[in-house]
Amino acid sequence: MTLDDQLRRHDSARDVPEDLGRAPRAAATLARVTATAPGNGPRPVHRKRAARFALAAVVVVAGLVVAPVLGTDEAALGSWEPDPRPATGREGAHYAAECAEWTGAAADYEPKVIEVRGTWVMTYLVSANGEAQCLRSTEPASGFVDGANQSMSGPLLQTPAANGLATTGVLETSAGLSSTTYFMVAGKVGTRVTEVVFASQGMQVRATVRNGYFTAWWPRRKPASIAGRLLDNTGYNGSPNPDVTLTLSDGEIITRPIKEYDANR
User: Where, by residue number, does the polypeptide cross the bilayer (predicted)?
Assistant: First the structure.
């Protein structure tokens, strides 16, 4: 199969007839659009505090509900850091309560991990019946006064082997051709795991490991060529599959694709 054949498989418009643009209805639509003066279109909608209120649809992946984050790849890389810091006590209480509200977490939720990377915060909540994770910006964005966010929730993960992880895999989300694509991963660590590092697009992403759980996220670096983008986004079972390196308490180092620890495999 040639590269052209591979690219055509990913073309969402491959089934659209080539003469569709010459149809009378299409010509009338074009004439109407070009006859409208700039600035006379509908006014933008003022969205409420979080991106979850602005979406026309959500994406369901492996039992998790994912709401896209809006922005640009360049802006995200500028405020992203490969090494996170833990949230302060005051930050932790605020973001845990916020994430619980967004995801409808049970009243008995307990924050397991709250990490900060630049101007972004990732929160991991666990209750007796399920788990919830939130990623949010602390900076205002266009249409989002207190920053964009994404949130997800799902059932409790199984307990991993002492030298392994348990996760639902790397979640990829974006809100359109001009917005940022984010990769987000979280889950449980085995009792012997002390450090978790992901290798993605030339970046070394150090996860936060705390209370038997881990979290990490990173924005996509767009490859320069179309072929590069195609290959970069190709993972086994159609989802991202970066290598993850685990450091164990006795110094042993294990590197494997994250899909080997996927609970949905």
Answer: 53-71
Examine residue 33 and state whether it is found in any structural domain, yes or no. Answer: no
Q: Is the pLDDT of residue 209 over 50?
A: yes
In DSSP terms, 227 is beta-bridged to none
Place of tokens 């919830």: 132
Identify whether 4 is part of a domain: no
Answer whether 135's CB lies under 8 Å from 125's CB: no
- 197, β-bridge pairs: 206, 245
Strands of the sheet with 110-117, listed across from one edge: 85-86, 110-117, 120-126, 131-137, 149-154
Identify the pLDDT of residue 47: 31
- DSSP codes joined into one string, 123-171: EEEE-SS-EEEEEEESS-BTTBTT--EEEEEEPPPPPPPTT-EEE---E
Structure tokens at 64: 């998790």
Cβ neighbours, 10 Å, residue 154: 17
Q: Looking at residue 190, what is its pLDDT?
A: 98
Give residues with Cβ within 8 angstroms of 25, minimum separation 6: none
Q: Is the dihedral of CA 34, 36, 40, 41 positive or negative?
A: negative
Structural domain for 231, as ranges: 85-138+146-260
For the stretch 227-243, pLDDT in tens is: 655 555 544 445 689 99
Which residues contact residue 76 at a Cβ distance below 8 angstroms, ignoring those fewer than 6 apart? 180, 182, 219
HSE (CB half, 13 Å, CA atoms) of 198? 26
- Contact (CB, 8 A) for 249 and 105: no
pLDDT by residue (tens digit) across 32-53? 555 555 554 444 333 333 333 2
Mean pLDDT, all residues of the chain: 74
The structural domain count of the chain equals: 1
